[in-house]
Amino acid sequence: MPALPTWLTEPLWDQFAVLLPERPEYHPDHPLGCHRRRISDRITFDKLLRFGCPYEAIADTTCPATTIRSRRDEWIRQGVFARLNQIALESYDRIVGLVLDRIAVDGSITKAPGGGEMAGRSPVDRGKQGLKRSGMTDGYGIPLGRVLAGANRHDSPLPAPTLDRLDDLGPLPDDVSVHLDAGYDSDTTRTLLTERGLRGRIAHKGEKAPIQASQRWHVERTHAWQNPFHRLVRCYERRATVVDAFFDLADTIIAVRSLIRRAWTTHRWDERPNRRP
Predict the structure, then answer these.
(1) How far apart are CA 19 and CA 74, in angstroms?
(2) Which of 17, 98, 146, 277 is the most buried (most CB within 10 A)?
(3) Which residues lie closer than 8 Å to 56 by C-beta, 6 or more apart?
(4) Is there a contact between 145 and 162 (Cβ–Cβ < 8 Å)?
(5) Using H for helix, E for strand and C for coil, what is the string for the chain?
(6) Tens digit of pLDDT per residue, the chain (277 long)?
(7) Is the Cβ–Cβ distance between 88 and 256 less than 8 Å?
(8) CA–CA dist 93, 89 (Å, integer)
(9) How many CA atoms lie within 13 A of 39 on its CB side?
């Protein structure tokens, strides 16, 4: 994807840095205290934001590929990416407001040439390895979470774990409608929604239902927002935790970008872009 502008990377890093534990510049157990200085977290973070390049391509003398991978795994174990995404959603909800009375859920299949834990034979890519994400968005298109599965998995078993992500958002409105396409047109899905107190707006199989007929187009647009993050749309990562972490980072970028764009005309702050993003 294109390089992120500074008005987006700076607030991301400011919040990300707060979540990191304090680490000494030199390891205190070294007998002479003169070993190589620890590579800056900011340098590693900036390289992780380059979603379209393999680690060897973004590595240089300031930060080797092994450090990028080890620091990435360290931050995943600490839950930093998931926490950053949660903070971004809370900030968006507080300043702009999540549209939680309209939820949209849909799946999207992408390539996974490297295989891995979540890959499966893609039915739309001649049986090559692929990844399916069951994404959920609010009524504007802000990503609220996703469930990863192999590309050969049908959509119908995925709404249950996807909708479970709503529990992390706190109290919901009394009347919540869930917009789904015809792939979810089954009694199982309707029973699932009823048990959760949700109202389903499901397209019927065999009937023409343009995407504009309901609010489902918001999740389709969000898939289009996520696909420019090339590490996700053509995924070589083999571990589910790593793929999930990069999705958390991508969803954070989408939420913060939408927050800045929508708040530009209503709020003032020191680092506000001079022109509307």
Answers:
(1) 13
(2) 146
(3) 65
(4) yes
(5) CCCCCHHHHHHHHHHHHHHCCCCCCCCCCCCCCCCCCCCCHHHHHHHHCCCCCCHHHHCECCECHHHHHHHHHHHHHCCHHHHHHHHHHHHHHHHCCCCCCEEEEEEEEEECCCCCCCCEECCCCCCCEEEEEEEEECCCCCEEEEEEEECCCCCCCCHHHHHHHHHHHCCCCCCCEEEECHHHCCHHHHHHHHHCCCEEEECCCCCCCCHHHCCCHHHHHHHHHHCCCHHHHECCCCCHHHHHHHHHHHHHHHHHHHHHHHHCCCCCCCCCCCCCC
(6) 557 888 999 999 999 999 998 876 666 666 665 567 788 899 999 999 988 788 998 999 889 999 999 999 999 999 999 999 999 999 999 999 999 999 999 999 999 998 888 899 999 888 899 999 999 999 999 999 999 999 998 888 899 999 999 988 888 899 999 999 888 888 889 999 999 999 988 888 877 766 555 788 899 999 999 999 988 999 999 999 999 999 999 999 999 999 999 999 888 888 888 888 8
(7) yes
(8) 6
(9) 19
Report residue 144 as tokens: 């609220």
* Cα gap 98→106, rounded to integer Å: 18
Q: Which two tokens stand for residue 121?
A: 């034979």
Tokens of 136: 């959920």
- How many other C-beta atoms are found inside a 10 Å radius of the C-beta of residue 8? 16
User: What value does the CA radius of gyration of the chain take, rounded to a whole number of Å?
Assistant: 20
pTM summary value? 0.91
Residues 6 or more apart whose Cβ sits within 8 Å of residue 43: 62, 63
Q: Which long-range contacts (CB under 8 A, 24 or more apart) does 189-194 make?
A: 189/156, 189/159, 192/159, 192/160, 192/163
Closest CA to 81 of 251, 196, 256: 251
